[in-house]
């Protein structure tokens, strides 16, 4: 227990040191024209090493379904009816402030729910119906609403709602009847994290949004502004999120808080808030932790001399890497199967052409030896067989072209995020199956149409040939081949569907 507490204290000391360094950099970078900005580490969090040994975040309390990790806090997971929030443990002691929040809202569907909220309230709203936090708050809430409850097609959007502790949030209208300001921004499923900068200075609240399309951290766009806004002089900062029938992952990567002081007023030094005794204690623990770390490094280098100077690879596979690998493997298998089907279609086409040539030559020789009415019947049979074979060859050529187009699409769909390529491949497989059914039905209709109802075709006796290939036998052979080919396609499709279950 003592070791765990000691590690927790060391982690807190490291986090405090990092946050103090950020604060000094922010103060140094701030110009003299605007308000003085001082970083407040007790009201902020940022990875890495965000969580202590006991699973808590320094200076913050989490509740509900919130899950802190080393690099971020997942407020809610993408499950139905989830609620979670994180709040500062201590009230702020400054009048004006600025917060920079970095978050991700990701989901599988085109529409998500419910949304995420950033709070500054007089009391902690640990849990409730308003995006996972309590209703009738005293302060302000900035809501990143994902779901369109009122059906006006104005979501996802950002809504600023103030409250004096008496107002009940209007869920049915997405707070539009109570909004002090709002803007329409799509913050779901962006390639980069979305950033929000919220500034409260001289009774004016300003909201700026970075839409997450570029890695530039300072690429902010104006969203909303509320003037003559009176907020509590002291309050708690918080973030909450909720899901409903639809669900998204709501992840907060960082929450940085800055105290704003008007020019001319005295800014207290950063070191003045930390007692000298605590600073010496933290410094001693940090030096001890650094010595232990150096010692462990030396021991590892002695035990593993072959990996000196080389960065250690991560032995664990992330979720995104596994999904990309599975997509590549699935597309490669589809690529190989289509190549094999293409080869089989070429073989069937060559075989059909060979049979057509043999039957045509045979019937032509028979037609020259038969006269009269029998000769007329033979000529009709010749025309029917030739037309039928031409139609069969045409259908097989169309199937071959369809398979070639599918192969080309699969070759072009080898992009990691190309979910549309996989969908088009499935559509082409369905088209090929339907096309084969049409070919089979046409062949059966031709066979039934060419067979007389009252007599069966007889094979003429020709001495030069030991055997005779009749038209019926030929079409039966083609139909059997077609049925076998269709059965093979269905069998491979079932195997692919069964394999996709493990993706």
From TrEMBL:
PANTHER family given in the database record: LECTIN, MANNOSE BINDING 1 LIKE (PTHR12223:SF28), VESICULAR MANNOSE-BINDING LECTIN (PTHR12223)
GO biological process, one term: endoplasmic reticulum to Golgi vesicle-mediated transport
Locations listed in the record: Endoplasmic reticulum-Golgi intermediate compartment membrane
Name the record gives this protein: Lectin, mannose binding 1 like
Transmembrane regions listed in the UniProt entry: 472-491
The entry's keywords: Disulfide bond, Lectin, Membrane, Signal, Transmembrane, Transmembrane helix
Signal peptide segment: 1-28
Membrane topology: Single-pass type I membrane protein
Span of domain L-type lectin-like: 37-260
PROSITE patterns found in the cross-reference section: L_LECTIN_LIKE
SUPFAM superfamilies given in the database record: Concanavalin A-like lectins/glucanases
GO molecular function, one term: D-mannose binding
GO cellular component: COPII-coated ER to Golgi transport vesicle; endoplasmic reticulum membrane; endoplasmic reticulum-Golgi intermediate compartment; endoplasmic reticulum-Golgi intermediate compartment membrane; Golgi membrane; sarcomere
Gene: LMAN1L
Pfam families in alphabetical order: Lectin_leg-like (PF03388)
């Amino acid at each position: 227990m003592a070791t765990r507490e000691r590690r927790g204290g060391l982690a807190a000391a490291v986090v405090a040191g990092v946050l103090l360094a950020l604060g000094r950099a922010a103060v140094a970078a701030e110009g003299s024209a605007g308000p003085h900005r001082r970083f407040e580490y007790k009201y902020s969090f940022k990875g890495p090493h965000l969580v202590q040994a006991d699973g808590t975040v320094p200076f913050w309390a989490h509740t509900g379904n919130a899950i802190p990790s080393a690099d971020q806090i997942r407020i809610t997971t993408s499950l139905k009816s989830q609620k979670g929030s994180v709040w500062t443990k201590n009230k702020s002691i400054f009048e004006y402030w600025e917060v920079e929040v970095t978050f991700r809202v990701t989901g599988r569907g085109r529409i998500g729910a419910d949304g995420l909220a950033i709070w500054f309230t007089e009391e902690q709203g640990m849990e409730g119906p308003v995006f996972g936090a309590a209703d009738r708050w005293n302060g302000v809430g900035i809501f990143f609403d994902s779901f369109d409850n009122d059906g006006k097609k104005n979501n996802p959007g950002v809504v600023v709602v103030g409250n004096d502790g008496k107002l009940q949030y209007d869920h049915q209208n997405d707070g539009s009847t109570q909004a002090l300001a709002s803007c329409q921004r799509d913050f779901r499923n962006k390639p980069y994290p979305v950033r929000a900068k919220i500034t409260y200075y001289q009774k004016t609240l300003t909201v700026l949004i970075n839409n997450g399309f570029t890695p530039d951290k300072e690429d902010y766009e104006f969203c909303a502004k509320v003037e003559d806004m009176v907020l509590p002089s002291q309050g708690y900062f918080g973030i909450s999120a909720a899901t409903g029938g639809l669900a998204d992952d709501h992840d907060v990567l960082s929450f940085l808080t800055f105290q704003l002081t008007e020019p001319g007023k005295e800014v207290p030094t950063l070191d003045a808030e930390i007692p000298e005794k605590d600073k010496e204690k933290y410094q001693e623990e940090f030096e001890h932790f650094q010595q232990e770390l150096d010692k462990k490094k030396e021991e590892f280098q002695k035990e593993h001399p072959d990996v000196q100077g080389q960065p250690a690879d991560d032995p664990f596979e992330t979720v995104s890497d596994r999904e990309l690998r599975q997509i590549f493997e699935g597309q490669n298998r589809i690529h190989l199967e289509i190549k094999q089907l293409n080869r089989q279609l070429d073989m069937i086409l060559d075989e059909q052409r060979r049979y057509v040539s043999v039957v045509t030559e045979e019937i032509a020789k028979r037609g020259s030896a038969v006269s009269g009415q029998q000769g007329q019947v033979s000529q009709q049979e010749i025309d029917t067989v030739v037309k039928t074979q031409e139609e069969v060859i045409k259908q097989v050529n169309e199937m071959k072209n369809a398979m070639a187009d599918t192969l080309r699409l699969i070759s072009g769909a080898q992009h990691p995020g190309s979910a549309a390529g996989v969908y088009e491949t499935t559509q082409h497989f369905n088209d090929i199956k339907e096309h084969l059914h049409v070919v089979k039905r046409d062949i059966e209709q031709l066979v039934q149409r060419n067979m007389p109802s009252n007599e069966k075709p007889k094979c003429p006796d020709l001495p030069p040939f030991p055997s005779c290939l009749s038209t019926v036998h030929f079409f039966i052979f083609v139909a059997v081949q077609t049925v076998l080919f269709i059965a093979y396609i269905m069998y491979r499709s079932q195997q692919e569907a069964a394999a996709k279950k493990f993706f």
